[in-house]
Specification:
six-stranded mixed beta sheet; 9 helices; 23% strand
Length: 324
């Protein structure tokens, strides 16, 4: 209201409806939790002509490398988007046989002076890999790949990482939910976590590749006014699993799970996809991700390990899946 002026009852109701509609519309678009909408609505700042409003910083859409993005499930918003199927010849040599060879494959992508640019077509973002990230990626591959075939597939994907990153689809983005739930300390530089997926065929085996990125504030989390908020991208996880048939049974969650099944019965061969999934040059987001577990709505619980120590672990009973 203007200084000294008052709204009539009709004007109050009209303005309240306008504010509520704007708040709900923005909250839905920006995936703001329902229990936060009241707080956000109270902080909206309207222009004098009531034709536009600004959102408080804590609810604003993040900007990374000059582009806005939203927290939430991007896959459900784009179920029919087509994703390019990447086809790679299976290596004939022993590439990827040990951690040293896997590390060597990551070397061209590391640091600010990387030989190869990791650019994603969909977002326009440039990814980076630090030496610590490289060690984490190699460790993860070593832990999950229980046989030489899987390690060679990982090696083939790393050798073609430029193409994989270029065509990967951003499925979901979310805040540091682990810190929000008290399972770890708060990282003030961490803006969000992104999960990208890419369908890859190595030889005649189909894999779904997941790339995990940590998106960081360019100002180190200080929130300096006027400072450009660009992100340093870090690929902190690279996982592959055998692709699940669109019409077949749900595939194991990871390659490690497949091996666990095989160990339980020595006569059980490693499961194969009953029907080819990546048949054409492209596949829809819905078909690519049906049945795959989300990461953006994970709940963490405390569990006592065999060593008696308490650890935070994901509550798998509450996990949801894309396009169930």
């Amino acid at each position: 209201m203007e200084a000294g002026g008052k709204f009539s009852q009709e004007e109050i109701e009209s303005q309240a409806k306008l504010n509520a509609a704007a708040a709900v519309s923005y909250a839905r678009m920006a995936h703001i939790a329902p229990d936060q909408v009241d707080d956000m609505a109270a902080k909206l700042v309207w222009t004098n002509d009531r034709k536009a409003f600004s959102v408080p910083e804590e609810y604003a859409m993040p900007i990374t490398q000059g582009r806005k993005w939203l927290y939430g499930d991007n896959a459900i918003q784009n179920p029919d988007k087509m994703v390019w199927v990447i086809r790679i010849d299976e290596p004939k040599n022993k590439e990827g046989a040990n951690n040293e060879s896997l590390s060597a494959l990551l070397r061209p992508y590391r640091g600010k002076v990387a030989d190869s640019q990791l650019l994603n077509d969909e977002t326009g973002w440039k990814f980076t890999i630090t030496s610590n990230d490289a060690r984490e990626i190699v460790h993860g591959i070593s832990e999950s790949s229980q046989n030489s075939v899987d390690r060679r597939a990982n090696a083939a994907i790393l050798r073609n990482l430029v193409t994989v990153v270029e065509n990967a689809f951003l499925a979901e983005s979310y805040r540091d939910i682990k810190a929000q739930q008290g399972a770890k300390g708060k990282d003030v530089t961490l803006k969000g976590i992104h999960r990208f997926y890419a369908p890859v065929v190595v030889g005649n085996r189909e894999y779904l590749t997941k790339i995990t990125l940590k998106d960081r504030f360019g100002d180190g989390g200080k929130g300096i006014s006027g400072k450009e908020r660009l992100s340093g991208y870090q690929i902190v996880g690279l996982e592959i699993q055998e692709a699940q048939s669109v019409t077949g049974h749900r595939a194991p969650e990871s390659l490690a799970d497949v091996s666990a099944e095989a160990r339980q019965s020595p006569n059980l061969e490693k499961p194969r996809t009953p029907n080819r999934k990546f048949i054409g040059d492209e596949i829809s987001v819905r078909d690519m991700l049906t049945g795959v577990k989300r990461d953006g709505d994970v709940f963490y619980i405390q569990e006592v390990g065999t060593d008696g120590k308490i650890r935070w672990v994901k509550d798998e009973t509450r996990r949801t899946r894309f396009f169930e």
